[in-house]
TrEMBL record:
GO molecular function: ATP hydrolysis activity
A Pfam family this chain is assigned to: AAA_23
Domain Rad50/SbcC-type AAA residue range list: 5-242
Coiled-coil intervals, chain numbering: 220-261, 417-470
Protein name as catalogued: Chromosome segregation protein
Domain of life (superkingdom): Bacteria
Keywords, ordered alphabetically: Coiled coil
Length: 683
């Protein structure tokens, strides 16, 4: 298998970049991506983790030598390119294509969405496609991604053995080789999960052993025996259910076989009446296809165009319409009070008490009228917050609310369209099969074979009906027993809690303690399953990489402590230099990758670090030793010297050179030039 494509959009310093890698062949299994420090080499490694494993990736970044101390949300928000939001792009995505062969592979796209302020909304979208002969095929459900990676690539907990930062992983060897070995084996065997279970059981013991209250032990025993009896009855019913279910499936297989044999002879149900059945099925399928196509047309025609409109524009329209609704409501209230204004002013002038002396002049009456009008208008202006100052969409009138409701219903995801497309294709296939079946039935030669097969089919159907009735009876019995058991279990749980507190030795606390002891005994045995294999694999790789040629074997004990032995079985002191530590870490990761049984690509950032020329030559030989394994090296200009590049060049299948440019406000843009590398090495 190999990584065929990595595409980045608004990820770190990459605004949009496509990396394409060829299939390892003719000994060319190396991909070189060169760039100065800070140009985006490590971003490619992080994109692999984030794109494939999502939130789960963060807990494994530290083991791969990457930084994992910021949390998933901050990691995602910091990964968004600095110009994305201000240029109207509110999403970031990573697309990765994995090929098992030239003809078969799959593509994973993970997309994150951000608010206008650049905060991650908490939403991401995963889209998966099968890839056949380089062409995107059918879509797969996004929740199948972990299963897909487990079966056809590598699971998240094993990824650090294949994707890592060589310089940072070397530090793990500096700190504690034993810890690193234990961590690696735990990743393969799931020991971490066992330890978490043990911790929870110990907490269970502590919590349940406090606050003791006494209860009747006889009552506890009776409740337990009653519950156990019903649970045994349920288990017996389950066994009977399983037997009947297997019988039903066997009969269904016989029925399917008989039906297929009849269809091969040209009939669907064994007689001419099956023609009408096929016609009816075809008509039903065509009707359903019409409904599906109408739904797809409606979705594409009514919703898709609005998804092509910029989000800012849609949000601005929604805000304006809401403010106009508020303005319209305010204006309506003002208009409804206008008659009251006229009535008030008329009453005001008609009132003679108290009298005015002297009488108002015409100018004073006009001034008074103006003041009354101004006072009335002040009741309505300024308008409340949320009212539109300018009415733009007056033509909508009372339909503004309906418009908002329609806009709220415009959201759709890729799965909405893909689901309808898949259903349409399925119905089209069904119609083609029914047409072919109809053609066969019309030309059937009735020589008695169909009648015989139909008789056998009738007998099988009768037996199948009987078994299905019995299966239904057992399912109803199980349902009744389950209700009884649930009630009895709830009662027993309440009383048992008291018993747990009063009788810790005879209770589940005692059982929990026994499980903890079992885990303590189990973990060393689990180590023994893989330690010997790891020691053999590490020995083979270490001999290829290290200076010391008198090393005979690496021994690993159950604690993870390593000892380098000579042919005479004597311990050889280990050099803890930076180079030897990196060689050890490389041998460990290679050994873990080997015993995992996974033939996955290697992606190494800072692959050669501070290794001397001899170590570099040895590691290079190891990388090219497996001609079918893709090795992607992310290096800066000083790691690979002219001699190393010359030795490596016959095995290089693709190169990229990263270039970086400042585009303002402290933000940069990285681009990758295909088939280019550091000039002083290639000339």
């Amino acid at each position: 298998m190999w990584i065929a494509k990595i595409e980045l959009f608004n990820f770190k310093s990459y605004q949009h970049q496509l990396f394409e890698f060829p299939q390892p062949r003719a000994g060319r299994n190396i991909v070189l991506i060169g760039g100065m420090n800070g140009y985006g080499k490590t971003s490619v490694l992080e994109a692999l983790y984030l794109g494939l494993f999502g939130k789960e990736a963060v807990e494994h970044l530290g083991r791969a030598g990457l930084k994992d101390d910021v949390g998933y949300r901050k990691f995602v928000e910091r990964a968004l390119h600095g110009t994305a939001i201000r240029t109207g792009r509110d999403s970031m995505w990573v697309k990765i294509q994995i090929n098992q062969s030239k003809a078969e592979g799959f593509e994973v796209t993970r997309k994150w969405f951000f608010s206008r302020s650049g905060d991650w909304t908490g939403e991401d979208e995963v889209v998966i496609y099968e890839v056949r002969d380089g062409i995107r095929g059918r879509a797969l459900a996004s929740d199948r991604l972990p299963e897909l990676l487990d079966q056809r690539f590598i699971p998240a907990h094993v990824a650090p053995f294949f994707f890592f930062d060589g310089e940072e992983v070397k530090k793990l060897a500096d700190q504690s080789r034993g810890d690193q070995i234990r961590t690696g084996i735990e990743g393969l065997l799931g020991v971490v999960l066992l330890r978490k279970l043990k911790k929870r059981l110990e907490e269970f013991q502590t919590n349940r052993s406090t606050g003791i209250s006494v209860m009747d032990e006889q009552k506890h025993r009776e409740l337990f025996e009653t519950l156990s009896q019903h649970e045994r009855e349920y288990e017996e019913a389950e066994r009977k259910h399983q037997t009947l279910d297997e019988s039903v499936k066997s009969l269904q297989t016989q029925r399917s076989d008989l039906t297929n044999r009849m269809m091969q002879l040209g009939a669907g149900a064994g007689d001419v009446a099956s023609v009408s059945d096929v016609v009816k099925q075809q008509a039903d399928a065509e009707t359903e296809l019409k409904v599906t196509e109408d739904a797809l047309d409606d979705l594409v025609a009514s919703k898709l165009p609005f998804h092509l409109v910029a989000r800012d524009l849609m949000e601005g329209l929604s805000k304006q319409v809401q403010e106009e609704i508020a303005r319209d409501s305010w204006d309506a209230r003002k208009r409804s009070l206008e008659p009251e204004k006229a009535k008030f002013i008329g009453t005001f002038y008609a009132t003679t008490e108290p009298s005015m002396s002297p009488e108002l002049t015409a100018e004073q009456e006009a001034a008074l009228q103006a003041r009354l009008n101004a006072a009335w208008e002040s009741l309505f202006y300024p308008m409340p917050a949320g009212c539109a100052e300018i009415v733009v969409h007056d033509y909508l009138g009372p339909k503004r609310t309906a418009l908002l409701h329609a806009m709220n219903g415009l959201r759709m995801g890729a799965q909405d369209v893909l689901g309808l497309v898949a259903k349409r294709e399925s119905l089209q296939k069904k119609i083609r099969e029914l047409v072919n079946r109809y053609t066969k039935i019309e030309g059937v030669d009735r020589d008695g074979s169909l009648a015989k097969l139909n008789g056998e089919l009738t007998a099988v159907n009768a037996t199948l009906d009987q078994r299905q009735r019995e299966l239904g009876d057992v399912e109803r019995l199980m349902s009744g027993l389950k209700g009884t058991i649930d009630q009895e279990r709830a009662l027993y749980a309440r009383e048992h809690e008291k018993f747990v507190q009063a009788n810790p030795v005879k209770s589940m606390v005692g059982r929990a303690e026994r499980v903890c002891n079992l885990i303590n005994e189990l973990i060393p045995q689990l180590y023994a399953l893989k330690v010997e294999q790891l020691a053999d694999a590490m020995t083979g790789v270490y001999k290829k990489l290290a200076h010391k040629k008198h090393v005979h074997r690496i021994h690993i004990d159950e604690s993870g402590k390593t000892t380098i032995l000579s042919k005479e079985g004597e311990e050889i002191p280990f050099d803890k230099s930076a180079g030897e530590n990196q060689v050890f870490a490389t041998a460990l990761l290679a050994g873990l990758a080997d015993i995992s049984g996974i033939d996955a690509p290697l992606v190494v950032d800072t692959p050669l670090g501070r290794l001397d020329s001899s170590h570099r030559a040895n590691i290079l030989k190891y990388w090219v030793s497996d001609k079918k394994r893709q090795v992607i090296l992310l290096s800066q200009d000083k790691e690979i010297d002219r001699d190393t590049y010359a030795a490596m060049e016959p095995n290089v299948g693709m190169t990229y050179l990263l270039q970086h440019a400042e585009i303002g406000s402290g933000v940069g843009r990285t681009t990758a030039i295909e088939n280019e590398y550091f000039m002083d090495l290639t000339q």
